[in-house]
Amino acid sequence: MSAWETVIGLEIHAQLATRSKIFSGAATAYGAAPNTQACLVDLGYPGVLPVLNAEAVRMAVRFGLAIGARIARQSVFARKNYFYPDLPKGYQISQYELPIVAQGAIDIVLEDGSVKRIGVTRAHLEEDAGKSLHEGLGALTGIDLNRAGTPLIEIVSEPEMRSAKEAVAYMKKVHTLVRYLEICDGNMQEGSFRCDANVSVRPVGAQKFGTRAEIKNINSFRYVEKAIQYEVARQIELLESGGKVVQETRLYDPDKGETRSMRSKEEANDYRYFPDPDLLPLELDEAYIEAARAELPELPDAKAARFASQYGLSVYDAGVLTAGRDLADYYETVVRAVPTQPKLAANWVMGELAAALNKEGLEVGSGRLPAERLAGLLTRIADATISGKIAKELFEAMWSTGQDADALIEAKGLKQITDTGAIEQAIEAVMAKNPAQLADYRAGKDKLFGFFVGQVMKATQGKANPAQLNELLKKKLSG
Amino acid sequence: MIHRETLTQLSADLRARKVSSVELVRTFLARIEASQPTLNAFVSITAEQALADAEAADRRLAGGGGGALEGVPIGHKDLFCTAGVRTSCGSRMLANFVSPYDATVVARLKAAGAVMLGKLNMDEFAMGSSNETSHFGPVRNPWNTALVPGGSSGGSAAAVAARLLPAATATDTGGSIRQPAAFCGITGIKPTYGRVSRYGMIAFASSLDQGGVLAASAEDAARVLREMAGFDPRDSTSVDTPVPDYLAGLGAPLQGVRIGVMKEFFDTGLDPEYERRVREALAVFERLGARVREVSLPNLPLSVPVYYVVAPAECSSNLARYDGVRFGHRCRDPRDLQDLYKRSRSEGFGAEVKRRIMTGTYVLSAGYYDAYYLKAQRVRRLISADFERAFGEVDLLMGPTTPTAAFALGAKTADPITMYLNDIYTISANLAGLPAMSVPCGFAAGLPVGLQIIGPHFAEQALLHAAHRYQLETDWHQRIPEQYA
Predict the structure, then answer these.
(1) CA–CA distances in Å: residue A427 to residues A253, A342, A449, A469, B97
(2) Residues from chain A contacting residue B80 (CB–CB below 8 Å)
(3) Measured on CA atoms in the order A443, A447, A453, A456, is the torsion positive or negative?
């Protein structure tokens, strides 16, 4: 098996988060009753004309700038001609020869921690098609044109990924990026973010690419990984048994975990692309592009680097905390409240908080536990009001009651005992109660130290400051 | 003889309350009804709505209000979408299509107070030069009903020539306003590409289509165009430059105006008598103080082949939406999707439309795109460059509108190429997006002859002024076919 190298290129379709469609004023909201969000332009009525949505352009430019790409001063909309019932005009308006974004790059982190740069050949604007509905209609097919005309950016990578894992890492990175840029909601169930994977294999060391198959419309990271793995195995098996891979379009069936042929190259449409005469070439000047650049947020890579240096976090932790803009913002809000404890904050955000959110299937932005409230808890750890152990209990109480840390500490009397006299008193009481153990300890049984810690903690309901307790106990036990 | 009045005169009479809109509408409706069996200029006659609109216009006029064309009867070529009224495009495909909205041109003329009497016959999807490709039967030429009125705006031209209407809207993709204007002895203007909104104008070839006016005189055309023209945010190709008042300064002297006579238009295909009439018209301009000289635009003879690549390419895509799914003709009992597409389109489209869809599909296909479509676009730029050079030396270009006067019905239907060659002088202005007119300039063998005037981009005013000045000197535009006089 190791004699083969996998070659993967991805075409990612991201729906742009504009309020109206790319060439009409109809709304883009998801989930409306069929055909209630399709105006005459979306329906391809006789005589209607497309008018480009400026917001979609701005979003595509943001993406281009974020991946260090060239923004075309002039790009051209073309018609991709084919007949299909969910394509009302009989053509899709897309960009063909002159896309708005060309030659960018995206860095991904491989499993061994090294960074690999994946080239982005181009990204272009286009309109989505409608949907064909088959369920509950008997032998009929329904057409819902609500999605027709929704703006998409198609992001085409170079064939530079060499494993399913790399492909997933790349797709995740693009997913992170479009959400950072607030140009796509990234919702994969609703189809807002989906991809086609071009997969081929070749003998290790070969220069020429093998014949590729295109797996269409995969809408989850897991399916991308599985579909590619299946396809790679299929192609290798085919080649090793003396067969040939044919260029074709395949579909991934998640239920069966396999890809199957949809249409061959011979059956492929001749799309007869030509510039759309209803739309003038899109011209962008320097000032427009610079204004868009000025509006870019801090991007994930830059943010991760800053987190690592500013907060002294590991590269891994910085990466986790910057994977989403909401998470990064949450973390920074916490750190601002407890500026001396960036690592403590990172541990809590990635640990207890992430686990609790995950358990309930919530997003960090859900407001379930505001950053200020978690910061309140960490403040009390930092100023030694409570111990780490108590803090975990307290976190659970905060999560379930929605109350803040100080209120709960007060109500439950969880305040740590830091008064030396009080701790000494407790120690003396324990020593008095356990003379045999005390004698053994003093005879050299050091292990019994733990026993005494436990007893004092029990007596103080865990509230004794552990560091102080250790110090005082050592002193007292040794007499 | 109210129908003989110009639109300008009728509009003044309406405002002066010398005549009511209802009277005008009744008069013209009666003429339309009477002419319909012979001329077949109309696809739909909207008498009831027209009378209601005329009454409303009269009320506004009585109150001293109303728009610039208040109460004036007009008709629309049947490819301008009209809310609630069938818009057939001359095709079986849309014979049942009632638009849910008004085209911008329709809305603007409505806002100006014009009253629509009906929808005018045309070549199917504006593809034709004789009005013989209409699903609703051919239109006949009011000068001689054995002859074609020209196309594709044949209904609009015949209606104005026979004074069934004082003016009508039309469109011009390769000569569809100017050629029928010439054949019917009336005045027609195709404005600069982008001057009149294409929103709601059913597309044939989007980069060439342009709405305009057919009228009895340049002044009438100016009056209607002034209301139609202007930027429309719903048409991305419409141009956002102010519309001048085309009527201001009409009749100004032509002293010193430089007129170029396009050498390439006086070729062997031009009928000698037609040529004499055009030369006589040029002599009139010279007498009026214009400086007339010959100019050469060497790439003009390539216009026809370029056009018959570009226009079919665009039409093959524009007409893909007629698939029997959402509107228009649908075949009976389709077996499956392919059958629905095939039969709906086979039944809905006529032969000429199919020919152009096939040609267009071919020239855009993989392996042919570079050789045909791309090359045609390159030559198109050369033709534009020829015009740019010429307009560096002259203010206006002139020549014949067509090679011959109107021909007989059926004379050219067997051979599409000879039909296509009838547009040889008109197509270049569309390819370059230039404003162009046809003005009646006499008769050849008893049939009207058209003088074509082409100007630089957005020179509509200069065209209309020159044409109006010429019409002050001549009376060809006042000639009406005897039967309709």
Answers:
(1) 67, 34, 12, 8, 96
(2) 47
(3) negative
Asked if residue A225 lies in contact with residue A243, where contact means CB atoms within 8 angstroms, the answer is no
CB B136 within 8 A of CB B180: no
Instruction: Tell me the nearest-neighbour CA distance from B221 into chain A, angstroms.
Output: 24
Active-site annotation holds for B152: yes
Distance CA A239, CA A252 (A): 20
| Tens of pLDDT, residues A318-366 | 999 998 999 999 999 999 999 999 999 999 999 999 999 999 989 888 8
With CB atoms and an 8 Å threshold, state whether A85 touches B325. Answer: yes
Dist CA A21 CA A12 (whole Å): 19
Integer Cα distance of B139 and B156 in angstroms: 10
Task: Answer whether residue A384 shows pLDDT above 80.
Answer: no
Beta strand A274-275 with A77-81: parallel, antiparallel or unpaired? antiparallel
Question: Would you say A199 and A226 are in contact if contact means Cβ atoms under 8 Å apart?
Answer: no
What are the structural domains of chain B? 2-252+437-484 (3.90.1300.10)
Pair of tokens at residue A324? 């989403």
- Dump pLDDT digits (tens) for A387-443: 777 888 889 989 988 888 888 887 877 777 778 888 888 898 898 999 998 889 988
Q: For helices A371-382 and A405-412, what crossing angle results, to 10°?
A: 50
Side chain identity at residue A402, one-letter code: G
Which of A54, A78, A97, A18 shows the shortest CA–CA distance to A279?
A78
Residue A2 pLDDT level (bands cut at 50, 70, 90): low
| B327 vs A contacts (CB less than 8 Å) | 45-46
State whether A280 and B81 contact (CB < 8 Å): no
3-state secondary structure B155-210: HHHHHHHCCCCCEEEEEECCCCCHHHHHHHCCEEEECCCCCCCCCCECCCCCCCCE
Whole-angstrom Cα distance, residue B67 to residue A267?
58
Say whether residue B313 is in contact with chain A using an 8 A CB cutoff.
Answer: yes
Residue B28 at interface with chain A, using a CB cutoff of 8 Å: no
Catalytic residue among B21, B99, B134, B176: B176
Cα separation of B211 and B170, whole Å? 6
- Of how many residues is chain A composed? 479
Interface of A with B in 22-81 (CB under 8 A): 40, 43-52, 79, 81
CB pairs under 8 A between A and B: 100
Report the amino acid identity of residue A23.
F
Q: Is residue B375 among the annotated active site residues?
A: no
Closest CA to A5 of A196, A250, A171, A209: A209
Instruction: Identify the CATH assignment for A420-477 out of 1.10.10.410, 1.10.260.40, 1.10.3720.10, 1.20.120.530.
Output: 1.10.10.410
**Whole-angstrom distance, CA of residue A378 vs CA of residue A400:** 18
pLDDT value of position A176:
94
Sign of CA dihedral B388, B393, B398, B403: negative
Confirm whether B77 is a catalytic residue: yes
CA distances from A477 to A302, A423, A428, A435 (A): 54, 13, 9, 11
User: Structural domain boundaries of chain A?
Assistant: 10-192+264-284, 298-412, 420-477
Contact in structure between B315 and B352 (CB atoms under 8 Å): no
Nearest-CB residue to A280 (from B236, B365, B366): B236
A218-254 as b/e: b if 16+ CB within 10 A: bbbbebbbbbbbbbbebbbeebeeeeebeebbbbbee
Look-up of token digits 């830059």: A302
Taking the CB of residue A411, how many other CB atoms lie within 10 A of it? 11
Q: What is the dihedral of CA B331, B335, B341, B342, to 10 degrees?
A: -80
Q: B320: distance to nearest CA of chain A, Å?
A: 5
